[in-house]
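Case study 2.
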Amino acid sequence: MKVVIAIDSLKGSLSSMEAGMAIKDGILAAKPDAEVIVKPLADGGEGTTDALIEGMNGERIDLTVTGPMHTPVDAYYGYLKDTNTAVMEMASAAGITLVPDSEKNPLLATSYGVGEMINDAIQRGCRNFIIGIGGSVTNDGGIGMLKALGVRFLDENGEDAGEGGQALAKVARIDVSGMNPLLKECHIQVACDVNNPLCGENGSTYVYGPQKGVTEDMKKTLDEAMAHFARVTSETLENDYLNTPGAGAAGGLGYAFLAYTGAALTPGIELILDAVGLEEELSSADVVVTGEGRLDFQTAMGKAPVGVARLAKKYNAKVIAFAGSVTKEATACNKEGIDAFFPILRGVCTLAEAMDPVAARNNMTATVEQVFRLL
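Prediction:
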């Protein structure tokens, strides 16, 4: 029997690989002769960098960059030396959790630190990038990131237009001559799970702006400024990504990646499954094991475990999911390729007791062993 494990993290309890290894122990207790492969799993959002560093023998690179409110912050990314790949989350440098609600200011918040992370990785030799862009606190159209990469944004007087959302309307001319030339050698894949265009009522400012401090009276002005920035970009670079799905992600950072770096925007789960080479292993698997902290209706809407299940079904493998807890609505997962799912709790306990890493690991291993005794 060949079993392939790809389970998302149980947040607050076990990382993707820790959960995977606990499952492996349970399988081997029931089936000592089984071939068991453990792959890291993430969806391109929070935790993706950690999952791929741990699961692909990567190196964590710590660095200090310019934070969203222009003060230094500690950030990090993953360096996968074997493939010259950098794995990073823009939230590490410009995330919403870095700024208290009382200090959020979309007119000033900058994505500059994201560009600094990319530059650092390029200097380290990385030419392949996997970048998650969820959880941003910026609404600057990616101007900050692009400035860090060497692009100049000038106002009508030829002066620097500044940073943050307030700079968008001031951009009269764009000079890309100083852009890091090594970017042309780079293959950038952006994990993006939203389809919003850059502007309009479904765009970055109207939909995601309020959580970043955009007030009702700011929306129209900021949205028009974003559209102006896109027009000047389009005239300069002779491309048009204004209405491309995902352009509005991360306050327009999706647009910046598309227009200036030639990046591809890909659903996070697809990108990660490809990066870890899961399909190659699934092609010969008898059983596939997946799961996450809680299986519910949202899981069935396309979260990581369902992404694994759909891929596994291409090869007619049985798919079993394990979770810290399941809801009544989790039965929707059965229609999406998960043949059976099981909660791992083995007795009445408090939430804190259930989430204790040692308890979670033991519960996972014990539950998996009993399920695999049936197979």
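Residues 20 and 82 are 23 Å apart (CA to CA).
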